[in-house]
Structures are given as structure tokens and as C-alpha cells.
Amino acid sequence: MSITGESIVADIARLKPATVKVFQRQRIDFCCSGNRPLAEACAKANRDLGEVLSELAALDPSADEVDWNERPLVQLIDHIISRYHDRLRLDLPTLGELAKRVATRHGDANPALREVETVFQTLADELLTHMRKEEIVLFPMIEKLETAATHGSMGVAAPPIDGPIAAMEDDHREVGDLLAQLWKLTGGFEPPADACNSYRGLFSGLAELETDTHQHIHLENNILFPGGQRLVEQLESAPSASL
Fold first, then answer.
1. What are phi and psi of 37, to 5 degrees?
2. Please, are residues 33 and 22 in contact by the beta-carbon 8 Å criterion?
3. How far apart are the C-alpha atoms of 197 and 95, rounded to whole Å?
4. Which neighbouring-strand residues pair with 8?
5. Contact indicator for 29, 12 with CB cutoff of 8 Å
6. Which of 5, 220, 204 is CA-nearest to residue 91?
7. What gap in Å lies between CA 120 and CA 143, rounded to an integer?
8. What is the pLDDT along the chain (243 residues), one digit of tens a residue?
9. Torsions phi, psi of 171, nearest 5?
10. Which of 158, 179, 166 has the alpha carbon at shortest distance from 231?
């Protein structure tokens, strides 16, 4: 893939997974608002297009991770649940307790830490609710579609997934906004020089949460959801049948 300023950021991230690290380092949105040309995304992030293009060109092609474009969607769903959903259910309560402790101990000196705690709790609640909706509603729909396509059930009345996908993408935008608020409130997740271990641990945990969540949303917005929509088109392209 030849990358230019006109290349769509989401397409770059989807086709060349190693580029995700560059986009994260440069604070270029490749997940929630990735459907824009690279030049526009660089301008939005106040980054030099030439510098970003050079960094992307210098990537080692062998550094690409699993190409989820080539894997069955059910495998991608299993990966999303085990790598992101299950881990979030374990990590969010711990990180929430840490945010509360740091806000209690250091909130007088830095009132922004109290806002960090509030924004984080909103984010955690949103993520937990969002994951539950995906696992109960949307993921089973996509799995059913893929099973039907695999068994040649063409022309089926496919379940209406556009509505659930749009709802999940709205949730993703809200999550992205909350992460951006945390980044701003924490000065880019940079603790003060004299910060205690809890303070540093909180900021490190928030930085890791942002990185993981951007990758998580990318896999859904740019690979899983379009894949599900293609299955609907594939299944409805032949004479009518029933699913």
C-alpha cells in the first residue's frame, strides 16, 4: 500500500497494523474519526504531514501483527473479548480505586485529579455497558451472519445490523471524547516530578488504557463492523431465503 496525504487513516491502520503505533505516538485519530485523509488528520492533530509520512515509510513491514482482515470475523470477536473486554473487566475497578485514592490524597494540591476521577468513572461505566451490549446483541448477530455465509445460505433475510453498529460507533465516539478529556486533564499522562508511586501508577494505567482502547475501537470500527455489513450484502445478494 502506497501511503500519501490522500490516504484514509482508517484504511492505513486496517491494511498496515504496524502504523497504529505511529498514529498513537503522533496523537492522530485512527479509530473514532479515522475516515478522513491523512493530511486532514495531521492538520487536526497539529502534526507535520511530511514528518508523519517519513515515519510511516520507515516502518518495517515485518512488524505487522495479525492481519485480521484475513481471519474469520468470529475469530476477531473472540480476540476482542479475550484481549480487551475480559481485561477491561479486571482492570477498570482497580484503576478506579487508584483514581479515587490519588484524588483523595492529592486533590487539594491538584484539583484536576478530582475531575480525573469523575471522568474516569464515567468512562468505566460507559465501557462496561458498551461491552455488554456488544456481547449480547451485535456480536451474536455477526456470528450468525458469518455462519450462514459459510454454509452458503445465500439470499437470507439478514438481521438488521446497521442500527446496532451505528449505536456502537456512537458509544465509541463518546469513549474517545472521554479519553481525550483524561489526556488533557493529566497533561498527556505526565505526572509531576515529585509524584508518589500511586500517582505515577494511575497516570501509567490511564496511558495504557488509552492505547488499548484506541486499538480496540479500531478493530471494531474499521474491520469487524464493515465485515459484518459486507456479510449482509453477500447474504442478500441472491434470491430470497430465510435465515
1. -60, 150
2. no
3. 14
4. 37
5. no
6. 204
7. 32
8. 789 999 999 999 888 888 888 998 899 998 888 899 999 999 999 999 999 999 998 886 665 567 898 899 999 999 999 999 999 999 999 999 999 999 999 999 999 999 999 999 999 999 999 999 999 999 999 999 998 888 766 555 667 899 999 999 999 999 999 999 999 999 999 999 988 999 999 999 999 999 999 999 999 999 999 999 999 888 877 555 444
9. -60, -40
10. 158
Q: What DSSP string describes 131-181?
A: HHHIIIIIHHHHHHHHHHHHTT-TT------HHHHHHHHHHHHHHHHHHHH
Give Cα 98 distance to the centre of its chain: 23
Whether residue 165 contacts residue 229, with contact meaning beta carbons closer than 8 Å, is answered with: yes
Q: Which three cell numbers stand for residue 104?
A: 483523595
User: Which residues make Cβ contacts (< 8 Å) with residue 73, sequence separation at least 6?
Assistant: 142, 143, 146, 224, 227, 228, 231
What lies within 8 Å, CB to CB, of 206 at 6+ separation is 95, 116, 120, 182, 186, 189
CA 88 to chain centre: 13
